[in-house]
Amino acid sequence: MATSTGGDPHLERAYTLSGPDDARALYDEWAPTYDADLTGETQGYVAPTVTADAVVAAAGTAVEVLDAGCGTGLVGAALHERGVTRVDGVDLSPGMLERARATGVYRDLREADLTAALALPDDTYDVVVCVGTLTHAHVGPSALAEFTRVVRPGGYLVATVLDDVWESGGYRAEVDRLAAADVFEAVSIEIAPYRAGQRVDCRLLVLRVR
């Protein structure tokens, strides 16, 4: 069943992207109204706050965090509100990064394509958080291994996967594969609200890196 978009044209386009160039163009265009479009009552985009709560519950606040696919900074702002102050962000869209920069909550922001390798050394962060990018026509399950590469042993990957692609998109199989290879252990994999206004859920992953 198709994910409900509530008739939002940007969301409808987002779920049918053809690749990174198309994604960059969409999100540059959407950046000025993204927060208002998603956080209002119609969409009720609660995934950033739900995920920030999970980060603090798992890892505490005295951590260095990479917000992978940071967009306009909704996750960074939610983390900052909870006392997490060392947060870096990467995103494909310069327009979204400009909005994230304006929040004042990020230590560093850089452009990056999450479908490729991150230009970061191994074991750089205590936590990688990824909200809203493991979804239709965005970033596939291969990113999970790359995210864990830059997490220090004992740290966490906390991510949302849109519920209706959890199995069909290969994310569950990749989580199982990496857990079996002892790359990480699954602390919890729960169904959580994503866009509550449209009753769209996600799998909220809390994975502890070996």
Automatic annotation (TrEMBL):
Q: Name one GO molecular function term.
A: methyltransferase activity
Entry's Gene Ontology BP terms: methylation
Q: What is this protein called?
A: Class I SAM-dependent methyltransferase
Keyword Methyltransferase among record annotations: yes
Q: What is its EC number?
A: 2.1.-.-
Matching Gene3D superfamilies = Vaccinia Virus protein VP39
Query: Species name for this entry?
Result: Pseudonocardia spirodelae
UniProt keyword annotation of Heme present? no
Enumerate the spans annotated as Methyltransferase type domain: 66-158
- Which of UniProt's keywords are assigned here? Methyltransferase, Transferase
InterPro entries recorded for this chain? Methyltransf_11, Methyltransf_Superfamily, SAM-dependent_MTases_sf
